[in-house]
């Protein structure tokens, strides 16, 4: 969800920042990790959230790729961003880029100009750029972010591809069931109306449903429309959270979901650490990537690291590791390349998640097909069962 945070910045004074966070405490941590004083935190108004959701998203990955190409060609940062603004056709995106150009011409740092557009540049991106400014390594920082975002998109694409076939199967089957229950069953209800008590119990229930649909179909359509509006305007996210909690309780599925979240945590931490950001501020910035249950563990682990414990010890004590991750973190601590090692842990579990998703898809497809076939078959059999009984009585 979105929060409006009033901040006090050293260079620009009091300002407003809009960002995505799991709760108010997470929003406060993200802003504090950037070195700004937090004056107040409030949820964004509903109309503001709806407007932001409908607006075109800023193409951050494409912007980073094109900016890196221009910088590698020897063009200055001001000229590079100005070139991107001139070629941009979308007014909203061009406005963001033009604002960056104007701020850069005033002599402000690049990271500071990015902070003025929190809807386009998340705190992680700003922190990465700010860390690169201390070492004059903007090219390297952009390359790291591009690799990070590309790997996340690749994993997301694998999971989405694995979910397409089951989703289509459920959608088509649901439409068939909706057609049967909303159109065919009401027509059959008139045929069986005179048979009354001679119908089997389940067939009588189906008949009553058909009569209700035929009598109150405008009300049912209105309820469906209201349900769709609620799901689009936040209800779907709330339902997803509850489904997430239910799935988390199943050992096999819950463990995979935990590993998926830890993979995102390791990959993001790896990018931040390689960019020169200290471990404690990095941990405070990435807490929003985890579920509420794991956020509490991460907060405790951050406190433990601040007290002097190693990353592997703190993560192991709070259940933020796997068997593979723990060993690789210890190796990274001994070799002094913790950022690179965290990215290797994430890559290992990415491949593991991709194999698991492919296996689940192969198993889930036939299972869903069988389940939906049974449901549709049951509806058809219940509709024709009285006819079969009538035929037997005639014989």
Order of strands, widest sheet: 2-1-3
Regarding quaternary structure, how should these chains be classified?
single chain
Global structural class: mainly alpha
DSSP helix fraction: over 70%
Given the C-alpha coordinates, what overall shape results?
elongated
Main pleated sheet:
3 strands, antiparallel
In whole angstroms, the N-to-C terminal distance is: 66 Å
Number of helices: 15
Please give the radius of gyration in angstroms: 28 Å
Average pLDDT value? 79
Helix and strand pattern? EEHEHHHHHHHHHHHHHH
Report low-confidence residues grouped into runs of 5 or more.
46-55
How many β-strand stretches? 3
What share of the residues does DSSP label as strand, in percent? 5-15%
Please provide a written account of the structure.
With 395 residues, the chain is mainly alpha-helical. The protein has a three-stranded antiparallel sheet with strand order 2-1-3, with helices on one face. Helix 3 (60-72) crosses helix 4 (77-87), helix 3 packs antiparallel against helix 8 (138-191) and helix 9 packs antiparallel against helix 15. The chain is 76% helix and 6% strand. Among the domains are: 1-55, no CATH class; 153-254 and 359-394, no CATH class. Residues 46-55 have low confidence and may be disordered. The protein starts with a strand and ends with a helix. The protein is elongated, with a radius of gyration of 28 Å. The protein is built from 15 helices and three strands.
